[in-house]
Each structure stands twice: as structure tokens, then as C-alpha cells.
Amino acid sequence: MAKPFLSIERLTQQFPDGAGGTLTVFENASFGVEKGEFVCILGHSGCGKSTIMNILAGLAEPTSGVVKMDGMHVSGPSLDRGVVFQNYSLLPWLSALKNVTFGVSARHKGWSKAKVEEHARAYLAMVGLEGDVVHRKPSQLSGGMRQRVSIARAFANQPKLLLLDEPFGALDALTRGTIQDELIKVWSQTEQTVFMITHDIDEAILLADRILLMTNGPLARVAESVDITIPRPRNRTEIVEHPNYYAIRNHLVQFLGQRSKDLAGHGSDGQDQRPETVHIDKAAHAEADVDIEPEGAHLRAVND
């Protein structure tokens, strides 16, 4: 069986607990992400989502386990992995355009200055930033504009893997919705692989091909992998009309509200902790012209 593009194998992270012992955040976690896939991960604070993100970015080393991308071990930061943080992380002394060209010129050392700028402007335009605004410094931009620059910068570097750490968490609802649409538009054009942390269930359903669900920490694990069985392109005003939308949403709410607690705190006994696949498809039942089961009756996990 071929390995996925991004392979997380038996990943364990432990920290000193401050009392002479060890705190195990997660243990023997194993899952994969396919090339071009958009995957979101959901879980309560303290379950280790950000720790997994930092390991994938090469900003932290796991206690044990291996991360492989495109068949190569991940160790340390790399231009092959781009990160978009919640706090924008733009260079304050550079304009929006130069924040993007800075990374592009490092990625493509043989490109002329004109080609670097043309490439950067194209990605800024993809997120709706054109004209004089690209010459403004971050302090002269709104929060939404700063996050657009951050997204453009990450995509413009053309990383093999794009990591998004709650990129819309600090934005108001209207701005968040607009930039979500821009993100999907850019992703659909580039077909890059995306791994995203979010606390927003509706955002995850709108954006993701698949949602990974983590139990509560410590001794957390990636317990389920939920397929988003809603076709693309997705529109936030129409997606709620799809027969699978509320079935998927209810499953996610029930997991995060109760099952994440019930499944928490159990060690791996040295075994791989691979998530179960959950495939919810009421639309398939309707198209087959069969009797639909009662609400929730067919929401079951099947082995991956």
C-alpha cells in the first residue's frame, strides 16, 4: 500500500510536568494526508493540535515518532513547508508587496527582480489586494488585509505543504467569511496540500476534504477522520441545504461535546493510534431511493 504524501508515524510528545514526572500530550499518533488534500484538525485546547502543527513545520521535535513528506523525513524548517499564523507575523518595516517578494526571492534565487515582483503581485491579486494598497506597511492595513498578505506570502512561495494555525481566529465574522472564500479560490488554483487548525466547526466543513478529530488531553489521540461528503465548489449560503451538512455537523458537535471526553486519557499500550474513518452520506441514500434511516442511525465509524 502506497504511503500518503504526508505521513505521521507513531508520533509521541512528552513534556516535564513540573513535579519531576512526565506529561504525555499524545502518544503513537499515526495518520496521513494525501497530496492536494485540504485537511482540518479539531479538538479542545490542550489536546496537542498546535504541537502537531509545530512538528510538521519543523519548529519542534517530537519525543519519538517520524514525520515524512514526499518520502523524506521532516526535520527543521524548510521552504517546502509554509505557515500562516493567527497573528499574521508580517515584517513591520516592509510593505505588503515586499513581505511577499522577500520569500519569493529566497525561494527562486535565479529569478529577476521584475519576475519576483510579478509573481508576488499575482498572488496578492488572488486574495483581493491590488493597486496602491500593496505598497502599504502592515501598520497601515486592517487585520483582514494583513491576513490576506500572510496567505498570499505563504502560497507565493509554492510550498509542498501549507500549514494554517487558526488563521482567521482574530477576524470578525464578515471578514473571516470573505477571506475563507479567497483561501479556497487560491487553493483550488494551486492544488497545494493544506493542513489547518481551527476551532470553528462550520469553517472546517466549508473548507476541508476531511476533518481529523482529537480527544481531550493529556494522552490525546486523533480518534476519527470524518469525510466531508459535500461536493465542491461550496458556497456558504447554499452548503446548509445539502442533506449531508447537518448530519456531519451534528456528528462533529457530539464528538467535541461528549465523546472527546469519553475517549480521553487512554494510553496506546504501544500500539499505533490510527483514526477511524467516518463516512456520512445521506445524499447517497436519497439518490438510491431507499428509506432514510432515523437521524443519527447510520453515523458510525468504520475502520480505515
Global mean pLDDT: 87
Tell the overall outline.
globular
Specify Rg, calculated over alpha carbons.
20 Å
SSE pattern: EEEHEEEHHHEHEHEEHEHE
Strand order of the largest sheet: 6-7-8-3-9-10-11-12
The low-confidence parts are 290-304
Describe this structure in words.
The chain is an alpha/beta fold and 304 residues long. It has eight helices and twelve strands. The protein has an eight-stranded mixed β-sheet, with helices on both faces. The chain has a four-stranded antiparallel β-sheet with strand order 2-1-4-5, covered by helices on one side. The protein has helices at 49-57, 96-107, 113-126, 143-156, 173-190, 201-207, 245-262, 282-287; strands at residues 6-16, 22-33, 38-42, 64-69, 72-73, 81-84, 161-165, 193-197, 210-214, 222-227, 276-278, 301-302. It is globular, with a radius of gyration of 20 Å. The chain has a domain at 6-36 and 46-75 and 208-302. Helix 2 packs across helix 3 (113-126).
How are the SSEs ordered, and which strands pair?
Elements: E1 6-16, E2 22-33, E3 38-42, H1 49-57, E4 64-69, E5 72-73, E6 81-84, H2 96-107, H3 113-126, H4 143-156, E7 161-165, H5 173-190, E8 193-197, H6 201-207, E9 210-214, E10 222-227, H7 245-262, E11 276-278, H8 282-287, E12 301-302
Parallel strand pairs: 3-8, 3-9, 6-7, 7-8, 10-11
Antiparallel strand pairs: 1-2, 1-4, 4-5, 9-10, 11-12
Helix pairs in contact: 2-3, 2-4, 3-4, 4-5
